[in-house]
Design a protein that fits this description.
Structural class: alpha+beta
Oligomer: single chain
Number of strands: 28
CATH class of one domain: Alpha Beta
Number of helices: 23
Largest sheet: 6 strands, antiparallel
CATH topology of one domain: Rossmann fold
Mean pLDDT: 87
Shape: flat
Distance between the termini: 72 Å
Amino acid sequence: MAAETDPPNADLSAPARRILVTSALPYANGPIHLGHLVEYLQTDIWVRFQRMRGQRVLYMCADDTHGTAVMLSARRAGVTEEAFVAQVREEHLADFDQFGVEFDHYGSTNSDANRTLCERVWGALTAAGRVEERTVAQLYDPAEGTFLADRFVKGTCPKCGAAEQLGDSCEVCGAAFEPTDLIDPVSTLSGATPEVREAPHLFVTIEPLHDFLREFVSGSPDGGAGAVPPEVANYLKGQFLGDPSDPKELRDWDVSRPAAYFGFEIPGHPGQYWFVWFDAPIGYAASTLEWCETHGENFEDWWAADASSELHHFIGRDITYFHCLFWPAMLKTAGMKLPDQIHVHGFLTVDGAKMSKRRGTFIRAAKYAEHLDPSYLRYYFATKLTPRWDDFDLNLGDFADRVDADLVNTVVNLASRTARFAKPTGLSETYPDDGGLFAAGAAKSERLASLYEAGDFAAVTREVLALAAAANKYVEDAEPWAMKKDPAKAEELQDVCTVALNLFRQAAVYLAPVLPELAAKTEALLNCECSSWEAAQAPLTGTPVSKFKHMLTRVDRAKVSQMVEESKAEHAEAEAADAPAATGGKDYIAEEALEPECTIDDFLKVDLRVAEVLESEAVEGADKLLKLKLGLGGGHTRQVFAGMKKVYTPESLLGRKVICCANLKPRKMRFGVSEGMVLAAGAGEPDIYILAADDGAQPGMRVH
RNA sequence: GGGGCCGUAGCUCAAUCGGUUAGAGCAGCCGACUCAUAAUCGGUUGGUUGUGGGUUCAAGUCCCGCCGGCCCUACCA
């Protein structure tokens, strides 16, 4: 946990800011994975930066423990919910620890502090007349004894008849409906047939706060800044708030769930529990309350409406709605501190695609740390993080290249190529002429600080790397290795190393929020302090240099692949364990219903031929398309575009015999005309399996 | 169905308010060097800025259509 004492303030004339920072609470129903880490690392970097600048920061987080999913997981595991979330908590904390994410306090939404604050907020909502009770009809699972959220019900679409559709919409025809409309609904929890039951629910009205919320997100007319970036404000206006001239009505929010539900029972409403999304954000405050109680601080100094502190939330863009509308509405009504800024980040993709368990790119934090140095990931994420909510990609090849090239070859190289020369003498007593390099780096201080402040870590790493690159050039030009051979140039050698090591240290200080371990190793090497921002302002002189030890090893590509392979294997095991035995596998016919009966004449209209893939290339600018030239014998060829690039590489198809529909009407596509279709099984990526003919089949033969 | 965001070199990203010939790193190629973790330094190849229109003296940037991706949301719009 972070030090409580205030570090020296960067700007001695200004009092330190008091900043309360949160990351969204991870749900206590699963492990932390690389997608989660985007947010915790982003927040941790920002927090560490603020601390280096002398600000007073509280970094608060907690496990989000309530809800149906946790309740069911606990049942399945045969333990109480409390025992279940306690176990998950240990795992989460271990993961955060490995990645250097340092919270001041990590609470739980299932705590007395949270219950107390939920009651306080609830009391305020009730007193303000914002709470209404209404009856809601919902599907109920008699076997599990719980009401079912939409995603826990499957059934046949009432509109198109497609089977196995989830409770709220149909993937096949796109229809939207209520789960109670489903034909033959089945609980995915127990397999039981759910019954429709009515239960009272409590709703919170936020429409009266419409004007307040508009001002909150986009700023006040008198020039006050909004709490969210412009694109987020646009989204909220477009989706929920509308224009002042054409406002949309904000819907009431259903904040209760009937028993059985793992959560807090609502005072005065026996059998009704606060919905997990109601108590989750209150967990930010509850965590602070617990911290205050053990640190002799006053909770109101951080959470009262007029508290002089700042409140910053870091969230993913999927939960923008809750944090930017409901949450401020709750706080406003409860007379509590409003967020000053909500930092919204995008999602992580891996190798250009959504994280996929099947492909092994759904990687747990713990699995990553088994194989690779967490510093790599902290750095790589930093090179990608901006204040915008764009998604960004963890390209595993690029990841390894980038870490090696930037950190090992450029930054650490500065130390490793000169520390040995400097060890016998230490650093020079006075800082030598370096052509202005150190001063130029020092002059970057405020610019880099404002980039950190704005969350533009990508720009920070770019600029610091440019400094380190210039430093390498300095060493190259000075040729210390030549001086080493000439005893008369010992002083000159010491000077060159003094410059190189100071430039290295400057970079390490600037990168310290991202790479705290590198900063610590730099402190050990140079016997100095690297934990304050001002450390980059003045060069170090006359100090001893320790024996150089490797600070960061190159990325082992084999470990990267191993990590992916093992993640893949984990998924396969989990699937095998989940699959009910001897049910004959997945019901693909239910998933994609049979077409109406056809006659032999209908079938013969489709002319299927054996074809050989003569040419195969990926289509530039298309993610899914391969352009194939098919040989049908006798000199006949066809150009066919096939949407299977994500599953088959172009080379893997060359020379293969495939089955194609040879009389399909040619279709003009963006990249050319497609004159047929290659047959493959499966509903689409990643399930695409090309049909093949047995040996002996020749191109052009018809399939009967 | 509605909305938001995104699309720039093989890869990852820059480009102030619309302003010169769209830049950088990595990878590739050529050369130099050898202190350093096959590191470093110099040079160099590589772009119809997804696509088609429009506005403008000037468009990667602004407007409209289309294609593609991600997300949110919805029997309202």
